[in-house]
Structure to design on (295 residues):
């Protein structure tokens, strides 16, 4: 099978797509449960310091990425294995709980489809090699970070900090690079992580000094630092410009067409993550096209 996959990229992409649907199902678990786990930890720390009884609005007992088993949020019915097959179960159940017939959020099949599609595109771009494997790891991390930040305005350190250290560590294997986008030189990785953090940190403090308000979260600094460690300092300007453009366009759309309150802060992490993924695949092409256009 492995030899056949090496000989046929379309077969590899098809297998990757199907396998990534399963991974997308697990990402749904992380996206839903990790913020709750973080909140429980913060609450426990605060309650221990203040010597107050724990609040009852969070799950009690063991709660992690494996336990308890998934249940319907409306009727508390256990979700069986057959009801948890990525995409297929959602379509078969017509988007409703098998027991109470309440609607299942479209968020779940959407994450599965996004994960499968972006993973397949990544493998198609890099081919069957070690760079593709690392690129897929970055893709999965960025999807998880983007979804969590979009829903909770949190970027978990438990994901973004290991991502930063993996990016820096990969630079030690610089000769493995075939596309010049991953396994960059140590100097590019270190400068990239520093530039990614310090640029947004500077923007944060400049905005705060002018307006007296917080404009960007510290998680955004860390995320851009991680992308700098993976992709190098050369990609930081591209990621920032694309992130800003995406944020402006989407926020205008939400305000004008969806009636969003313009005073409510928007999470910036999804735009950084999206721009980082695009830069990973086509950053050099975008940069060269921009240089040719301008000069």
């Amino acid at each position: 099978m492995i030899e056949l996959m090496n000989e046929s990229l379309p077969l590899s992409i098809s297998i990757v797509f199907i396998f990534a649907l399963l991974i997308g199902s697990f990402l749904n678990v992380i996206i839903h449960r990790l913020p709750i786990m973080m909140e429980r930890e913060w609450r426990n720390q605060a309650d221990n310091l203040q010597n107050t009884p724990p609040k009852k609005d969070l799950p009690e007992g063991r709660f992690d990425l494996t336990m308890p088993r998934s249940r319907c949020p409306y009727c508390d019915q256990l979700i069986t294995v057959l009801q948890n097959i990525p995409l297929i179960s959602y379509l078969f159940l017509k988007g409703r709980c098998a027991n109470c017939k309440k609607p299942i959020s479209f968020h779940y099949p959407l994450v599965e489809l996004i994960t499968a599609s972006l993973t397949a595109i990544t493998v198609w771009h890099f081919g069957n090699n070690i760079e593709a494997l690392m690129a897929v790891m970055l893709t999965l991390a960025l999807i998880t970070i983007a979804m969590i930040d979009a829903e909770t305005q949190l970027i978990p350190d438990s994901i973004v900090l290991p991502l930063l250290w993996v990016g820096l560590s990969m630079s030690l294997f610089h000769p493995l690079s075939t596309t010049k986008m991953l396994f960059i030189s140590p100097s590019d990785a270190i400068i990239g992580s520093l530039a990614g953090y310090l640029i947004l940190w500077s923007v944060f403090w400049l905005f705060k000094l002018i307006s007296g308000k917080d404009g960007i979260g510290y998680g955004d600094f860390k995320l851009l630092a991680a992308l700098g460690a993976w992709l190098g300092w050369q990609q930081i300007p591209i990621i920032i410009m694309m992130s800003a453009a995406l944020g402006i366009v989407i926020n205008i759309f939400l305000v004008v067409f969806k009636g969003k309150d313009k005073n409510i802060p928007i999470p910036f992490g999804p735009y950084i993550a999206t721009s980082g993924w695009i830069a990973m695949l086509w950053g050099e092409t975008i940069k060269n096209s921009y240089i040719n256009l301008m000069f």
